[in-house]
Amino acid sequence: MKAAAKEVTIVMVEDDEGHARLIEKNVRRAGVNNEIVPFTDGNSALDFILGSDRTGASTQDRHLLILLDLNLPDMSGIDILEKVKSNPHAKRLPVVILTTTDDEREIQRCYDLGANVYITKPVDYDSFANAIRQLGLFFSVMQVPGQ
Amino acid sequence: MPLTTNTFARSSILMLLVGAAILIGIVLSSLFQARMTQSYSDEVIELRNARTSASNLFALVQAAETGQRGYLLTQNDNFLDPYERSMEQVIESLERLDGALRQEQTYSETIPRIRFLVEEKLTELRDTVALAQAGDSARAIEIVRNEYGREVMEELRELLLSLIQSLDTRLNEGLAELTDASKSMQWFAIGGGIVIIAVVGGAIIIVSQHVRELSRARSAVEELNASLEERVEERTEDLMQANREIQRYAYIVSHDLRAPLVNIMGFTSELDATLAAVKSYVLADGGTPTEDQIREARLAVEEDLPEAIGFIRSSTKKMDGLINAILKISRDGRRELKPEPVDLSQLLENTAASIYHQVDEAGGEIRIAVGGARGMVSDRFSLEQIFGNLFDNAVKYRHPDRPLHLAVRAMPARRNSIRIEVEDNGRGIAPEDHERVFELFRRSGVQDKAGEGIGLAHVRSLVRNLGGEITVTSTLGGGSTFIIRLPSDLSQFVRSSGS
Q1: Contact state of B262 with A123 under an 8 Å Cβ cutoff
Q2: Which residues carry this modification: 4-aspartylphosphate (chain A) (predicted)?
Q3: Residue B403 above 50 pLDDT?
């Protein structure tokens, strides 16, 4: 997040608070100190990303990186991905899918819809922590487009 | 009463045999009658010949006598002509009569007598004519005068007349017999014809009945075929649907069980890491812990340890909850169904009674219209669970701005099923979530109510167990209608699906 590193906000949509906590811990361990805004359901996350009117106008001057779980209580993460990627203001926001599902079709579908990265949460914690830390390292070098 | 192929074959063959027997009877009796008629007519012809011969004979004898008398009186040879002619023909005629009546026993005495008389008469005639020709007319006349010839002639006439009379009588009898024979033949033919018409008519009726039954059976088979195909298609569709759902179910279960597992393993590792900080403080090995070590150990004990333990505990609890929910659905699926007659209207009223208070208090209303689909045979417990869940949902997810209007309608649907609609004016479900709401652990819309995402999954599995299907039509904010299709007789469904 080189140039704009300071302004980038990580939006974490994760219904499992334990997962959210583990992800946050490991992202921090990778030295990423950006603000993380957690959401446990799809509606409130969409309210934040696209605004309560869902037009996306409010995202125009924000730098967001979305960390998305697919299985949410109120809607599917795919619905969120679809809405974000089809919104003219939000479509360039990088979306990282981080989920327990390793279903081949699900992965393809996410990339078809415009997901930037798809990561399966390993059950083994060492691998999990490693994956998140590497993701954190990845965050520290990637560019997030300004809207 | 359906006519089986066997009885049909038997009765039609019987009909044919009867018809053939009657035909043969008619032909045989016709032959017999014809033969009889022939013999009657032969007899009649014979009798007629005999009669003609008899009358001819008398006429000839008379003619010969007349010729003789003329000659004796006049000595004119002209009278000898008819005499001679008659004399020649008399014997011929006599032989013909004899021939005609030879077989007749009745005349066995008459004919020789006639022959004798004729010969006597001819002898007398011949003698007198010979005497006259020889010039002895006086003796000839003497012979005539002694009256023997006249007596012979008299007897002959009487004999012949009575013979002719008797022949006439027999002729009449023969003709009457002929008429009778032809009449009886006519009646016999008419009777036979009527019987044949009856047999043929019966055969036609039986055949047409059979043909009608065949075509009826064929159309029934065709209908069955068509409905069978339809049923096979329906069942295949159901199976594919069930298969998709099992896959989806396995996917959800594995995913949802894996999520708490990640937590448990993660926080166990975090515990390990925290333990290192605590260890370095507690087991300082005689040395004084540094300022940093103290701070870290404090932080670990105050924050990290309780946090990790809390997450491990809640994840374990969650896993237990998930497993229990799965077990519940699995148990319901295996519960023995008890098909019994259910008054749907009564059942809906009873189930609605538990939410009536809540609805009434908020100014809402519940309308139940069961109409023509009142009676059904199904599992009472399952039905109560289904409608109980749906009614609870209606109350739970009612629209915050308006009182709840809940309507339940039931109507008979095609192929022995009942369609039940549960309509509310609640907050509704977005179109993309119409399938999702029936999935285990999945919910839809704003998460402002407590719940685990089990209710509708449970309802769907209950409806499926009863051989039915549940779907929803809804728009976000516009209320929902749950449509349930159930077989009206569960026991029949259980039988036909072989479970």
Answers
A1: yes
A2: 69
A3: yes
Q: Say what the ipTM of the complex is.
A: 0.82
Question: Is the domain of B255 the same as that of B121?
Answer: no
- Alpha-carbon span A144 to A121, nearest angstrom: 23
Query: Do B128 and B9 have their domain in common?
Result: yes
CATH number of A5-141: 3.40.50.2300
Report how many domains make up chain B: 3
Q: State the angle between helix axes of B305-334 and B455-465 in degrees (0 to 180), rounded to the nearest 10.
A: 20
Structure tokens at A4: 């704009």
Give residue B286's pLDDT.
Answer: 67
Q: Does A109 touch chain B (CB under 8 A)?
A: no
Residue B490 and residue B362 in one domain: yes
Of the candidates A133, A101, A138, which has an alpha carbon nearest to the alpha carbon of residue A116? Answer: A138
Contact B315 A18 (CB under 8 A): yes
* DSSP per-residue codes, A115-146: -SEEEEPPSSHHHHHHHHHHHHHHHHH-----
Give the end of a domain, one of B281, B310, B334: B334
- Say how far apart CA B183 and CA B167 lie, in whole Å: 24
pLDDT attached to residue B495 = 55
Name the minimum distance, in Å, from the CA of B306 to any CA of chain A: 13
What gap in Å lies between CA B329 and CA B2, rounded to an integer? 50
